[in-house]
Amino acid sequence: MSGSATTMFFNELFDAASGQYKSYINGKWLRSCSNKVVTIMNPSTREEQAKVQACTREEIDEAYEGCAKAQEVWRQVPLWKRAEALRKVAGILREQRETIADCLVSEVAKAKKDSLSEVDRSADLIEYCAEEGLRLLSKGDFLTSDAFKGTERNKLCLSSRIPLGTVLCIPPFNYPVNLCVSKIAPALIAGNAVLVKPPTQGAVAGLHLAQCFDKAGDVFPKGLVNFVTVKASENGDYMAQHPGNDCLSFTGGDVGLSLAKKVGMIPIQMELGGKDACIVCEDADLDLAAKHIVKGGFSYSGQRCTAVKIVLVHESVADALCEKVLAGVQKLTVGMPEDNKNITPVISEQSANFIEGLVLDAKQKGAKFLTEYKREGNLIWPTLLDRVRPDMDIAWEEPFGPVVPIMRVTGADEAVAHANKSRLALQACVFTKDVDNAIRLSDAVRAGTVQINGAPARGPDHFPFQGFRDSGIGSQGIVNSIGMMTKTKTTVINLPTPSYTV
Asked: Which residues pair with 311 in a beta bridge?
């Protein structure tokens, strides 16, 4: 598709007269009657990038009403047709990969190549979800009553999975497309409606994703998929507590802790960040560990929930590991996302200030800087700290930036103890050549996932993905998401009690 055709393709969602993007409610692109907007800043230039609608509570109510009506139709659509509809969206998404990737570059300062990869991965996820949904949801259970002691063979139980209703999807800024479709696709294949509240940074990319669903045509009932932009401080809680919600899937920060207490008796799926520990044992392959620490700690400038957030290395190999990690860090390029640099500006000045506060606290308390700390606006150069101690804030806090602290430990047990003290327990990783030790440490570390000889990572998207403690509730991954977004329905057929003689 040509550039001009791409622009025309998306004309509906942008009001050129006001310079504002519209919300997508009940199959229509609308400006809010609030006459208020949410401003999106470009993290690289720190200038205004776009304006989206600040929708009212009445408009939110309309979206939920549309979801409820459309879901009654959608739940009766044959499963194979739902799968075909999702495949169609995946195809449109691939056609629009350049346009959506450009939004990610300007909205969240993600390198262009990584932005394209996110869009491609999202299309792959939608297609996989369509296929997996066909397999999972076409199955049921058949039980007979006489398996239970004292009962006769006079009851037949048919069990299947049915949709919940409306799923509220709240993705984060760092993967506003991929972590949006990871919620939408399971919900839709299961027969649910979805209401999406895009993140502020990443909202325009989210609205372009909405256009892909819109352009899929009448394969989706109007109102089945809604993208509603709001001022979170005004209407975030209103959406989360709305009686129209039958499920909440949220990825983000600590705000999820408060939301979890407010949403009531509906299924909740939350991923709230991590302080992902990397344990490097005395017998580890240090070249392998260093490679994964650099990639795991600094990809997308460390703004990943699965980034390496602290390295816990045996003191006997710490010097050698530091040398190898430093060599890798020095090869990283720093600059603007459109130039495909490894390190790009972090999402906001507030985030940059928080990261800087952690770095300066470590400096004041005696951490050894293996790299010079440097910052220009929201751009922070990759920072590698050695001899971090438990009394430093960065030993516990999640920087969500290009900073990797290294703590020296006397043994694996000390490393495990530190990792298990953290309130955040999303993932961890262990580097060792001893398979028995790897399994022992995996069992000892209380985190949602433990990677052996590899950096923490969310994907592949069909793997289970979950956190312990303050890192989350429920489990993600395509199979688990479909399971959470459905519930078991049983039909019991009562038969005459058979007469028999023994």
From this structure: 278, 406
Indicate the helix (H) or strand (E) that contains 415: helix 412-421
Q: What is the DSSP letter of 138?
A: T
Alpha carbon 490 to its chain's center: 32
Which residue's structure tokens are 């942008």? 14
* pLDDT, mean over the chain: 95
Q: In the structure encoding, which two tokens stand for residue 357, read together?
A: 């506060």
Structure token pair of residue 275: 């302080």
DSSP per-residue codes, 153-203: S-EEEEEEEEE-SEEEEE--SSSTTHHHHHHHHHHHHTT-EEEE---STTH
- Residue 258 token pair: 């408060």
Tell me the pLDDT tens digit for each residue of 357-408: 999 999 999 999 999 999 999 999 999 999 999 999 999 999 999 999 999 9
CA distance 432 to 414: 16
Answer whether 0.90 is exceeded by the pTM.
Answer: yes
Domains along the sequence of the chain with CATH: 3-272 (3.40.605.10), 277-452 (3.40.309.10)
Q: Which two tokens stand for residue 457?
A: 């990572």
From CA 352, how far away is CA 337, in angstroms rounded? 17
Report the distance separating Cα 139 and Cα 289, nearest Å.
43
Q: Which of 59, 118, 132, 271 is catalytic?
A: 271
For residue 446, the tally of other CB atoms under 10 A from its CB is 14
Does the annotation count 372 as an active-site position? no
Query: Could you tell me the CA-to-CA distances from 334 to 165, 311, 338 in Å, in that order?
Result: 46, 22, 12
For 487, the enclosing helix (H) or strand (E) is strand 486-494
